[in-house]
Design goal:
single chain, alpha+beta, Chloramphenicol Acetyltransferase, 2 domains, CoA-dependent acyltransferase
């Protein structure tokens, strides 16, 4: 199950089968036109005159990428299609020049155009580039009109079966740190694969590195019963323009950022209510959905409000890996509530009831301690359904949620006197009648973003949805 050395000549190549949540992302990427390729992005202002020259900036970025490979060889990995369902392979370079050549092939610059923005950059990466990626790539572009100091947007785009947003942010932080420290020939790492145990750097399957604990079969069974119960009904979502799968459309986003002051007020209020920011966000999303798409009589028997959560499970790993695991560290959990609860006539009461239900559901998953033990089964089922849906031409209609937490704890805002990170984001490629809400806090500002595909949803629909979510979040101050 773990990495094996499969090639020795001309630099070692390690390989291992895909495992756990990787199975679903691998299957969906094949069946739904690259659906699960994602991007972590940072907008960076140059504060060191030595980096003001575009050529110097590119050279420093490339140097930093090549240096970072020594710490995170996962950057050189790729998803390999094989008869047994897929593998992840990683070739370790035999020299600095070889590593640099591999990185050069995975680094792409987009030339700035009039009115160029982060949104245009992300649309280009997610729509035109991401579907073809079998390996992590790095994209960057200068931003016009961003101020007197040169400003760039930098992104790591990767198949989701290789890494998640947290892992990609850890790698991006390392890249920015090296960029800020400068580059010279004497600082190049000495590449000697024979003296490095790369199994200490390549992330193994979670099952092999979780904190040792005895999880009873009964606990696993309870988790699987809840998962099946929550997935037994359809999720009540904003109705798409079409439910038929299509390769058309552009992956776009809408974004709202609360001010630092309002973010602080919201967080204090949520804490006083005894709930997490993610709990309030999820309840607000459900309430906004029923406000904009009131349930029909027939919906109550076939649908409910459900969120299938990809939960970061680094806190379940051994001490060695809990803060350094750069691979895919997501496991499955689910929270749900009846439509009758969400669509109640008293919105404040509905919001409080949903928050209590979500809190109870998340406590169930945390107390079970079985997330890693369950994910192989849940991911296998989701991967199978991905293939069935593709064969039958069924669109994967859903609305997903993710809270990336306080990103400042992963990506520093300032990197010496050379770089300042102005903002960050994470986005996923959308090719089905779905939309994906992500939330994160950076520099004290609470950000809410919705990714969607304009073939399935109009901008006006998603704008109205995000505005309503923001209104509901603000209303919690009166609870």
């Amino acid at each position: 199950m773990n990495w094996e050395l499969v090639v020795r000549n001309q630099g070692p190549v390690f390989s291992r089968p895909i495992w756990g949540k990787e199975k679903f992302f691998y299957a969906a990427a094949r069946n739904q036109r690259g659906l699960t390729n994602f991007t972590v992005q940072a907008t960076v202002k140059v504060t060191d005159n030595r980096l003001a020259d575009p050529k110097e900036f590119e050279d420093r970025l490339r140097y930093a990428l090549t240096s970072t490979v020594g710490m995170y060889p996962l950057l050189l990995s790729s998803a390999e299609p094989v008869s047994n369902g897929g593998q992840i392979a990683c070739k370790i370079p035999s020299s600095w020049d070889e590593a640099d050549a591999i990185i050069a092939a995975r680094l792409k610059r987009f030339d700035s155009v009039s009115e160029y923005s982060v949104d245009v950059f992300l649309e280009t990466v997610l729509t035109r580039e991401a579907a073809r990626l079998a390996a992590p790539h790095i994209f960057y572009a200068p931003l016009d009109g961003a101020g007197e100091a040169p400003t760039y947007t930098i992104a790591i785009a990767s198949p989701h079966c290789i890494m998640d947003a947290r892992g990609a942010m850890m790698i991006l932080q390392s890249i920015l740190k090296v960029m800020s420290e400068g580059a010279d020939e004497g600082s190049r790492p000495r590449w000697n694969p024979g003296t490095v145990d790369y199994l200490d750097l390549l992330p193994p399957p979670l099952e092999l590195v979780k904190e040792v604990s005895a999880i009873s079969d009964e606990s696993v069974d309870r988790c699987l019963r809840k998962w099946r119960q929550d997935t037994s009904k359809m999720n009540h979502i904003l109705p798409p323009k079409t439910r038929s799968p299509s390769g058309e459309g552009v992956t776009r986003r809408v974004l709202y950022s609360f001010s630092q002051e309002e973010s602080a007020r919201l967080f204090r209020k949520h804490k006083s209510l005894g709930v997490t920011n993610n709990t309030v966000l999820q309840a607000s999303l459900w309430l906004a959905t029923v406000m904009l798409a009131p349930p029909r009589d027939e919906d109550y028997s076939s649908s409910h409000c459900v969120s299938l959560l990809a939960v970061d499970s680094r806190d379940l790993l051994s001490a060695k890996w809990s803060n350094t695991y750069s691979g895919l560290c997501l496991c499955d959990a689910s929270v749900s509530c009846p439509l009758e609860m969400a669509a109640g006539s008293d919105r404040n009461s509905a919001l409080l009831q949903m928050m209590r239900k979500i809190t109870a559901d998340m406590k169930f998953w945390r107390d079970s301690g079985a997330l890693v033990d369950v994910v192989n089964t849940t991911a296998e089922g989701a991967a199978t359904w991905s293939g069935v849906a593709a064969q039958k031409g069924i669109g994967l209609c859903n609305a997903f949620t993710s809270n990336l937490g306080i990103v400042d704890s992963v990506i520093s805002r300032f990197h010496g006197s050379a770089l300042e990170v102005l903002d960050v984001s994470a986005s996923g490629r959308i090719t089905e009648p779905q939309y994906f809400t992500r939330a994160w806090t950076f520099n004290g500002k609470y950000n809410i973003q919705v990714n969607y595909n304009d073939h399935y949803y109009d901008r006006t629909t998603i704008d109205a949805f995000l505005r309503t979510v923001v209104e509901v979040l603000r209303s919690t101050l009166d609870l």
